[in-house]
Specification:
heterodimer, A: 728 residues, alpha/beta, N-terminal domain of TfIIb, Dimethylsulfoxide Reductase, domain 2, Barwin-like endoglucanases, 6-stranded mixed β-sheet, 6-stranded mixed barrel, 26 strands, 30% helix, globular, B: 112 residues, mainly alpha, 50% helix
Chain lengths: 728, 112
C-alpha cells in the first residue's frame, strides 16, 4: 500500500473480497462464515460515527447495489446493498475495490494542457476556466473551419454519458460512438434481427444452458453469474463450448473444447438434429422455417465434427437433451461478441437455435425487455443544414447501427479524412488506446486530430495522448441521474447516486463540464437544468419511486416478466421470429447463416484470443487492491505447443502479429486448444501515470490486428494470428 | 369553373408528387427529426398541454415501417394534415426519419 494512503488495509480487503466472492459462489462453508462476521454480513456497523449511504457500483457495467460506510468524511468500506435483487445482495472483488478507485494516488487532480508532443508526457497545470475556454474555442474553430460533424464524441459506460450524447447532438455532430462497437453489437444485431429486440436470459429458471464464446463466471454479469450457480443447484445442466477451460467450464457439467471460430458449425448441426427429430413445436410463429430445413440438411453432426472437433455423438445427445428440457432451455446469448468477422452470423446461428427451442418470452428462456417506467429527458437539438448528410462511417457495412456506428470505421475515416475531415475528439471515460485493436493505427489517427479533449478519473493511455485532460469525479462523489436496469427475472429496477463524499482535488462532474462548455458555445439553454429537475422528469410516471430509492437504495417495478408480447407481433419485419431474415436478403447478404470455415493459423502460428478475469473490467486495471490478484497478464499456451517451441512456464516471451508486439510471461495451460493462445485485457500501459500497469505485461490493443464483423462492424478480436518466441 | 379545374389539377399533381416523394423515404432524417419535434411533438407526447393534443407518445418506434409507409402513402387523411405548413420535401424528411427509426427498423429510435 502506498504510504498508507488507502483507508482499507490489503489484508482486510482480501478477506472481504474473498468472502464476497465465496458468498457469490454460493458457498456456505464454515470458513466463509468465519470470514464474514455476522454483524458485517447483515450490513450493520456498531460504530456510531459511521454513516451509511446507498449507491451503486461503477467498477463495471452491472451497477450492483452498494452501501458506502463513511467515517469522518472518509469512505471506509463498500458493502453490498441487500435490497438489490439484480446483484442478489452481493458485490464482487471489483466492487469492494471501488474504494481504491476513489482514493487512488494516480487520480487526476486538476486540468492539464499538453506542452510537448503527444505521448511525450509534458503537461502544464491550468485552471478550469482556462481549460474550458480553450476547449470551447477549439470546438468552435473546428466547427467553423470544417463542420460540426468534424468532432468525434466517445463516451464510456457511465450515468453521465447520456449528457455527452446530448452534447454531441446539440453541438451538431453525429459522429458518435462508444465501447459497444468493441463489445456486443454483433450479438445485438443478431438477436434484434431474429426476435426484434435484444433479450436478457432467465438463467435462474432454466433447466439446460449451453454457453459458447462467453465466460460469465469470470466476466461477471448480474444476476446471471450468481443465477448460474443457483440454477445448477436446482438441477440445470450447463454445457460449455470453448477453446479454453474457463472458470465457467469448471462449473459446467460438460466442457467441449472447440476449434476457435467454428461455433456456427456446432449450432447449425444442433439445428439439423432438432429439426430432424421433429421436436420443433411452432413453425407458425417463424418466418422461413421451410427454407431453413432445406438450408441445414447438409449441416449434419458428422460434418460439424470435422469442422469444430466436437464428436457427432455428443452433438446429437446435447441436441436431444436440450430439446427435452425446452422451453426452459437456452443457448446463452452472452455479452461480448466482438470475436470474428462472422460474429453476427455466428450469433444468428445461436439465436435461431433458441427459436427452435421455443424459449422466447418464457420462463427459463430468453426474456423481452421489462417495463421500468423511467422516462427520457425531452430536449430539442438544433438542425444544422450545413452539416454533411450522414455519419463518416456510414454505408460501409449493411447493418451498421446508425446511432452508434463503429470505432474502427470512424478511425479509418479520420485517417483518410474521407468522406469529410474529422479534426476533433471529445472523449469521456473511453480508453481506445487500450481496447481498440491495432493501437498504432489509433496513434496514427491522432495525427489527423487537431484537438483532443479527454475527461477521465486517471491518466489512461488515451488521456496520455490528449491535448486537454479534465479530471472527472468518481461515482462516489457524484450526483447521477436515475438509471434503469434490466435484471432478468430478478427485477426491472432503477437507482440513483448522491455524493457520498465531496469532489476530491479539482475533479468535477461530467455534467458540470458539459454545462460550462455549452454556455461558452452558446448552447447553454439546452443544459439549463438541475439534477433534481432532470430526475423529476425521469420519474414523472413513477410516483413515490424517488422516496423508495432513498429508503432502499433501489426501486423495483413489479412489471410483467414473461408473456410480454402475449400474441402481439414481434418487432421484426415479418412480425414473427425471423429464421430467414428478409432485411438481410434486401441487403444482399446471407438471410440464413452459412458456414464459412475460418482461416486457420499456420504451423508455427497461434490464434490470439482475449478475455477478462473476475478482478478487472477491460482496461480498468490500475487498482492496487485488484492487481494484488494479478500483477501482470500472462500468455496462456498449451503444454504441447510450449514444448514444441522449447518454452517453459514463466519464460518471458514476445508475441508478435502484423500489427505489433508485446512481451509477457508464459503460463502453461493444459486447458487451452493447441493452436490458441490467450491473454487478459488491461495491461502493458503506455501511460506512466497508470502506475500499477505501466509497462507490465502486454496490451491486447498493441498486438491485435484490425478486423471487424462484416455486417455491423463490431470489432473482431479473435482474428489475429501471432508468432511467439522466447526473449533471451 | 376554370379556376376550380386548375386548382383540382394542381392539387392532384401536388398530391401525386407528395405521394411519390414520401413513398421513397429518401429525405434527410436529421432534418426530419428536427421538423417532427417542431411540428408534431407538441401534440404527440404523453403530457402534451396543447389544446386538442393527441396526448400519446408518437415517435419512430411507435410504429412499424409498413405502418409508416401506409400513413405517408395517404398523408392527407391524417386529421391534423390541414394544420401543417410543410412542403412536400419537409414531409419527406419527417417520413424518412420515422421510417428509418421504426420499431422493426435496423436501428429503432425513440423520440424524447
Amino acid at each position: 500500500m502506498k504510504d498508507g494512503k488507502s483507508p482499507i488495509s490489503r489484508r482486510r480487503f482480501l478477506q472481504t473480497s474473498m468472502a464476497a466472492a465465496a458468498v457469490g459462489a454460493g458457498i456456505q462453508s464454515p470458513l466463509v462464515k468465519g470470514l464474514v462476521p455476522r454483524a458485517n454480513a447483515a450490513g450493520s456497523r456498531p460504530d456510531k460515527d459511521v454513516t451509511s449511504h446507498f449507491t451503486a457500483c461503477d467498477m463495471c457495467f452491472n451497477r450492483c447495489g452498494m452501501i458506502a460506510r463513511k467515517k469522518n468524511g472518509v469512505i471506509k468500506k463498500l458493502d453490498p446493498n441487500p435490497n438489490c435483487r439484480k446483484s442478489r445482495g452481493m458485490i464482487c472483488a471489483k466492487g469492494n475495490a471501488g474504494i481504491q478507485h476513489v482514493y487512488n494516488p494516480d487520480r487526476l487532480k486538476h486540468p492539464l494542457k499538453r506542452k510537448g508532443k503527444r505521448g511525450e508526457g509534458k503537461w502544464e497545470r491550468i485552471s478550469w476556466e482556462e481549460a474550458l475556454d480553450h476547449t470551447a474555442e477549439q470546438m468552435q474553430r473546428i466547427a467553423d473551419e470544417h463542420s460540426r460533424c468534424s468532432i468525434m464524441f466517445t463516451p464510456g459506460v457511465d450515468a453521465h454519458s447520456r449528457f455527452v450524447e446530448m452534447f454531441a447532438d446539440v453541438f451538431g455532430s453525429y459522429n458518435f460512438t462508444n465501447h459497444e462497437s468493441l463489445c456486443l453489437l454483433s450479438r445485438n444485431r443478431a438477436y434484434l434481427d431474429t426476435f426484434g429486440e435484444v433479450p436478457t436470459a432467465d438463467v435462474l429458471h432454466s433447466r439446460y444452458i449451453i454457453i459458447a464464446g462467453s465466460n460469465p463466471l469470470e466476466a461477471i454479469m448480474t444476476p446471471d453469474t450468481i443465477d448460474l450457480i443457483e440454477a445448477k443447484k436446482n438441477g440445470c445442466k450447463i454445457v460449455v463450448i470453448d477453446p479454453r477451460f474457463t472458470k465457467t467450464a469448471a462449473l459446467a457439467d460438460e466442457w467441449h473444447q472447440i476449434k476457435p471460430g467454428t461455433d456456427m458449425a456446432f449450432f447449425l448441426a444442433m439445428s439439423h438434429e432438432i429439426v430432424k427429430g421433429e421436436r420443433f413445436c411452432c413453425p407458425e410463429n417463424t418466418h422461413g422455417y421451410d427454407k431453413f430445413v432445406e438450408h441445414i440438411k447438409d449441416y449434419t453432426p458428422e460434418w460439424a465434427e470435422k469442422e469444430c472437433g466436437i464428436p457427432a455423438g455428443d452433438i446429437k445427445r446435447i441436441s436431444k437433451e436440450i430439446t427435452d428440457a425446452a422451453p426452459r432451455a437456452m443457448v446463452y446469448p452472452g455479452r461480448r461478441s466482438s470475436d470474428y468477422t462472422q460474429s453476427t452470423q455466428i450469433r444468428r446461428a445461436m439465436a435461431i437455435t433458441n427459436v427452435l427451442l421455443d424459449n422466447w418470452d418464457r420462463p427459463g428462456g430468453l426474456m423481452a425487455t421489462r417495463e421500468v417506467g423511467v422516462r427520457g429527458w425531452d430536449y430539442f437539438p438544433p438542425f444544422y443544414p450545413e452539416n454533411p448528410p450522414d455519419r463518416a462511417d456510414a454505408g460501409q457495412v449493411p447493418g451498421l447501427f446508425s446511432d452508434l456506428g463503429s470505432f474502427q470505421l470512424l478511425r479509418e475515416a479520420i485517417i483518410k479524412q474521407e468522406p469529410y475531415p474529422i479534426r476533433g475528439w471529445f472523449s469521456f471515460k473511453t480508453n481506445f488506446l487500450q481496447t481498440g485493436a491495432n493501437r498504432q493505427k489509433t496513434i496514427r489517427m491522432l495525427e489527423n486530430i487537431d484537438f483532443f479533449v479527454n475527461i477521465d478519473i486517471m491518466m489512461s493511455d488515451t488521456a496520455w495522448y490528449a491535448d486537454i485532460v479534465l479530471p472527472g469525479n468518481s461515482f462516489l462523489e457524484r450526483e447521477d441521474p436515475v438509471t434503469a436496469l434490466q435484471g432478468s427475472s430478478a427485477c426491472a429496477c432503477a437507482f440513483l447516486r448522491d455524493p457520498v463524499i465531496d469532489n476530491m482535488f479539482e475533479s468535477r462532474p461530467p455534467l458540470w463540464i458539459i454545462q460550462e462548455l455549452a454556455k461558452r458555445l452558446d448552447l447553454g439553454e439546452h443544459f439549463d437544468f438541475t439534477m433534481d429537475e432532470y430526475r423529476d422528469a425521469q420519474l414523472r410516471d413513477l410516483e413515490g419511486a424517488l422516496d423508495v430509492m432513498r429508503q432502499d437504495g433501489i426501486y423495483f417495478n413489479p412489471s410483467k416478466a414473461y408473456g410480454i408480447y402475449a400474441g402481439d407481433p414481434l418487432k421484426t419485419l415479418s412480425g414473427v421470429k425471423e429464421i430467414y431474415n428478409q432485411r438481410y436478403e434486401q441487403w444482399g447478404i446471407e438471410p440464413m447463416p452459412v458456414y464459412h470455415p475460418p482461416e486457420m493459423p499456420g504451423e508455427d502460428q497461434f490464434r490470439l484470443i482475449v478475455g477478462r478475469p473476475a478482478y478487472f473490467t477491460q482496461s480498468r486495471t490500475n487498482n492496487e487492491l485488484l492487481t494484488e490478484f494479478m500483477e501482470e497478464n500472462t500468455l496462456h499456451m498449451n503444454p504441447d505447443a510450449a514444448q514444441r517451441l522449447g518454452l517453459e512456464d514463466g519464460d518471458l516471451v514476445e508475441v508478435e502479429s502484423s500489427s505489433g508486439k508485446g512481451r509477457l510471461r508464459l503460463e502453461i495451460d493444459g486447458g487451452i486448444e493447441k493452436q490458441t493462445v490467450y491473454m487478459v485485457t488491461g495491461f502493458g500501459s503506455l501511460s506512466p501515470q497508470m502506475s500499477q500497469i505501466y509497462q507490465k505485461g502486454a496490451s491486447i490493443a498493441e498486438i491485435q490486428e484490425d478486423a471487424h464483423d462484416e455486417i455491423c462492424a463490431n470489432m473482431a478480436m479473435h482474428e489475429t494470428f501471432v508468432n511467439v518466441r522466447k526473449v533471451s | 369553373m376554370r379556376k376550380l379545374i386548375i386548382l383540382a389539377m394542381a392539387s392532384a399533381i401536388f398530391a401525386t408528387q407528395v405521394g411519390i416523394g414520401l413513398a421513397m423515404f429518401d429525405g434527410n432524417p436529421r432534418q426530419g427529426r428536427f421538423l417532427f419535434r417542431q411540428e408534431c411533438r407538441p401534440c404527440h407526447m404523453e403530457d402534451a398541454t396543447k389544446e386538442g393534443a393527441a396526448g400519446e407518445y408518437l415517435g419512430p418506434d411507435a410504429k412499424r415501417q409498413a405502418e409508416w409507409k401506409e400513413i405517408f402513402g395517404d398523408i392527407e387523411a391524417l386529421p391534423c394534415y390541414d394544420e401543417w405548413d410543410l412542403s412536400a420535401d419537409e414531409l419527406n424528411h419527417i417520413g424518412t426519419y420515422l421510417h428509418q427509426g421504426a420499431a422493426d427498423s435496423p436501428t429503432p429510435e425513440r423520440c424524447g
